[in-house]
Design goal:
The protein is 0% helix and 47% strand. With 654 residues, it is an all-beta fold. It has a 5-stranded mixed beta sheet, with no helix packed on it. GO terms for molecular function: cell-cell adhesion mediator activity.
Length: 654
């Protein structure tokens, strides 16, 4: 047995007949009691229920120390779950909650002993209680992928989501993705889900003790993608054969295709008829029918499934259909008017998309009513909608049978139905009689005349034209007003006061105007009085209002005063009441529920004169009130004074 006293330097000598050599070595004999200062037991160990734990015990000791363990104050003995390993470590298998506590390692050798204690905490396992599950959704919906756990309350849980192997960084606010829920909930919301969101979603739950995960597949279904490679295989005057390849079905089988067409004349893309009529999801070619000849077309294809209609394909190349004879006849055949010996024919022109070919024009067929021979004319202008046929033998207002047809480079097309159109007419040949002028006011007069009893010889009359002028007017200053039909009077307004006006009347029709009647004249009235009624006094007793004012004196160039108009209304009402009188006073019965506004103006042959300033009659709480409005010739303001006033006998104008 080695003792401490055996420590020292030892020398070895090796010798033969030639020489001797030496080697030295030092022997140190270590001896120490166990010591945990350099390798203490872990103070706090954590393990989950059902797990295994190994607690290290490595004291420094020379010679090697014998190891034993205590749990609390009790010596720990080996069992089916508890093992003291050869190197002194303590292993506990299938840990339970009751295994939590303090554990002490005791180390002993011949030089002494030492012990060191650590604690063991036992926590519940983390379990994903609601994992994400496979889902089948429609594009545009919003869904929630659940990921909920149960865990030890003292354990911090971290949730991570991955999509097709790539981590979703929710902290950066990735579009469509949002984490929702509380501390133990890691649900992932996907808003407005798109087709590219189909795939595998993995929820990973991490704690300081473990990491676990659950995954689910999401299938997003949507309308089909756009068909591809749309081609026009053949085109005729009214049909076109198309072929195409289907696009992506976006997880829902394609059920139907439809074809759309666009021309320079259409408003956007329009659905077209096809053969077969129904294009199921397995049909990749069709014939478009009902096209217009000689029109440029482009086509596109749209696919649909149970989810909806998808985006259209790219347009095909632009191709023109073949030409053919035009089949659309002009409509609204009309005409008439024009000059003598003319037959004017009008129609609605055919739009370009219905002309069916080049060198398009119109065919005019005409004959007098009762004739059996047609006259045929060609109008080689695409945009024409009017034709004038001239022949000196045509009498005024003669009826003709007219048909208008179409033609192009391929031949003549359809003719319209027959319409009756009358030839041109002569201007009226006679002047109206009995023209007279009557003055109504300073600015208005009435012109009247006798109607013309017309026939084919005198010329048709559609209406009359009134010409008027002053005695010193130049010809360029003549006024002109038309009336239609059998009207025989016309009021002319906006005239000068006290002025002589001359007027003449003539008939008109589509060919022009006829001769004028001999002029008649009339003088407009003098101007109405320019001065308003002044010094208006009023008295209000209950609902009776008495008014009095001064008679207005007129100037030499003004019309005489014939009477007065009293205009009155409630303050908040727009409807005005009018009372006419030939006196300088008046009495009104008015319910004074609120203020009244009153003004007075003169009446004359020349019209109404200037109004007085508006007077406000206040609603009074007392039974009676009085006032006077004084207007001096050189003063332009309203003065109200309280005075003694009575409703007295009313004097007429003299």
């Amino acid at each position: 047995m080695l003792n401490v006293s055996d420590s020292g330097i030892y020398q070895c000598a090796a010798e033969n007949k030639y020489q001797i050599i030496y080697a030295n070595a030092e022997l140190r004999v270590l001896a120490s009691a166990p010591d945990f200062s350099k390798n203490p037991i872990k103070k706090n160990s954590v393990v989950q229920v059902g797990g295994d734990i190994v607690i290290e015990c490595k004291p420094n000791a020379f010679p090697r120390a014998a190891i034993s363990w205590k749990r609390g104050m009790e010596i720990l003995r080996q069992s089916k779950r508890v093992f003291i390993l050869k190197d002194g470590r303590l292993k506990i298998h299938n840990v339970t909650r009751s295994d939590a506590g303090s554990y002490t390692c005791i180390a002993t050798n011949q030089f002494g002993f030492a012990k060191n204690t650590g604690s063991l905490a036992v926590k519940e396992r983390t379990v994903i209680t609601v994992p994400p599950s496979k889902m089948d959704v429609t594009v545009g919906e919003s869904i929630v992928l659940p990921c909920q756990v149960s865990h030890d309350p003292s354990t911090e849980v971290v949730f991570l989501w991955s999509f097709n192997g790539d981590v979703i960084d929710l902290k950066k606010g990735v579009a469509h993705f949002e984490r929702i829920g509380g501390e133990s909930v890691g649900d992932l919301m996907i808003r407005n889900i798109q087709l590219n969101h189909s795939g595998k979603y993995l929820c990973t739950v991490k704690t300081t003790l473990e990491s676990l995960s659950a995954e689910a597949d999401i299938i997003v279904r949507g309308p089909p993608g756009p068909p591809e490679d749309v081609r026009v295989e053949h085109i005729s005057s009214t049909t076109s054969q198309l072929s195409w390849r289907p696009g992506s079905d976006n997880n829902s089988p394609i059920q139907i295709f439809s074809i759309q067409a666009r021309t320079p004349f259409s408003v956007g893309w329009q659905a077209v008829s096809t053969v077969p009529e129904i294009l199921n999801g397995k049909t990749y070619n069709a014939t478009v029918v009902g096209l217009s000849p000689w029109v440029e077309y482009e086509f596109r294809v749209v696919a649909g499934n149970s989810i909806g209609i998808g985006e259209p394909s790219k347009p095909s190349e632009v191709l023109r259909t073949k030409a053919s004879v035009p089949v659309m006849a002009p409509t609204n055949i009309n005409g008439g008017g024009g000059s003598r010996s003319e037959l004017v024919i009008t129609w609605e022109s055919i739009p370009e998309e219905l002309q069916n070919g080049e060198e398009f024009g119109y065919i005019i067929m005409l004959r007098p009513v009762g004739s059996t021979t047609w006259t045929k004319e060609r109008v080689p202008f695409v945009d024409s909608s009017r034709f004038v046929y001239r022949n000196e033998s045509i009498t005024p207002l003669s009826p003709f049978e007219v048909k208008v047809g179409v033609y192009n480079k391929k031949g003549e097309g359809a003719l319209s139905t027959t319409s009756i159109v009358y030839s041109g007419e002569d201007e009226p040949q006679v002047a109206p009689r009995g023209t007279s002028v009557q003055s109504f006011s300073a600015s208005e007069m009435e012109v009247s005349w006798n109607a013309i009893a017309w026939n084919r010889n005198t010329g048709r009359v559609l209406g009359y034209e009134v010409l008027y002028w002053t005695d010193d007017s130049k010809k360029s200053m003549i006024g002109k007003i038309r009336v239609s039909g059998n009207v025989t009077t016309k009021n002319i307004t906006g005239l000068k006061a006290n002025t002589v006006y001359f007027a003449s009347v003539r008939a008109y029709n589509t060919a022009g105007t006829g001769p004028s009647s001999p002029p008649a004249n009339g003088t407009t009235k003098k101007s109405p009085p320019s001065q308003p009624p002044a010094n208006i006094a009023w008295k209000l007793t209950n609902s009776k209002l008495c008014l009095n004012w001064e008679h207005v004196k007129t100037m030499e160039n003004e019309s005489e005063v014939l009477g007065y108009k009293i205009l009155y209304r409630q303050n908040r009402q727009s409807k005005t009441h009018i009372l006419e009188t030939n006196n300088t006073s008046a009495e009104l019965l008015v319910p004074f529920e609120e203020d009244y506004l009153i003004e007075i103006r003169t009446v004359s042959d020349g019209g109404d004169g200037s109004s007085s300033e508006e007077i406000r009659i206040p609603k009074m709480s007392s039974l009676s009130s009085r006032g006077v409005s004084v207007i001096e010739p050189s003063i332009h303001f309203l003065s109200i004074v309280i005075t003694i006033f009575y409703c007295f006998a009313i004097q007429p104008l003299i």
